[in-house]
Design a protein that fits this description.
- There is one protein chain.
- By secondary structure, this protein is an alpha+beta fold.
- The protein is about 40% helix and about 20% strand.
- It has a 4-stranded antiparallel sheet, covered by helices on one side.
- It starts with a helix and ends in an 18-residue tail after the last strand.
Length: about 140
């Protein structure tokens, strides 16, 4: 009985030590790295959710921005965007709908016309970023 235990223990120790010595070789397409780099660059420019508090004349939009520091939500960023024919004032960069809804409840007290939206992503096309997928 003692010999069987000795042989089994030697067998399991040897099997375990040989199984750990194998190296895995991964063959991956060279375009994967360039695609990952492009995806990271595109995702940097995508804004999830914003709140628009005003759309109209430039002077009124600038006045809203000037008074922004006096508001309760002054720790969120504010942007002035021109989309023909109006100037728009956007607040915040929110990643979840819940986060944006909470802020909208605060903002609607002062700006009842405020709403949540997803801006179009700003993606710049440059020839160096183009990747040909079809061969």
């Amino acid at each position: 009985m003692n010999k069987i235990i000795t042989y089994l223990s030697i067998f399991f120790l040897c099997a375990n030590s040989f199984s750990q010595s194998q190296l895995a070789q991964v063959n991956q397409d060279s375009r994967i790295d360039s695609l990952l780099k492009l995806k990271k660059e595109i995702n940097k420019n995508i804004f999830d959710l914003k709140i628009q508090i005003y759309s109209g004349e430039r002077d009124k939009a600038l006045e809203l921005i000037a008074n922004h520091d006096k508001d309760d939500y002054s720790n969120t960023n504010i942007e002035l965007v021109y989309e023909t024919p109006n100037y728009k004032v956007w607040i915040g960069d929110f990643y979840t709908q819940l986060e944006a809804d909470k802020k909208l409840l605060m903002i609607k007290k002062k700006y009842p016309e405020a709403f949540i939206f997803r801006p179009k992503p700003k993606i710049e096309n440059t020839n160096s970023d183009l990747i040909e997928i079809n061969q």
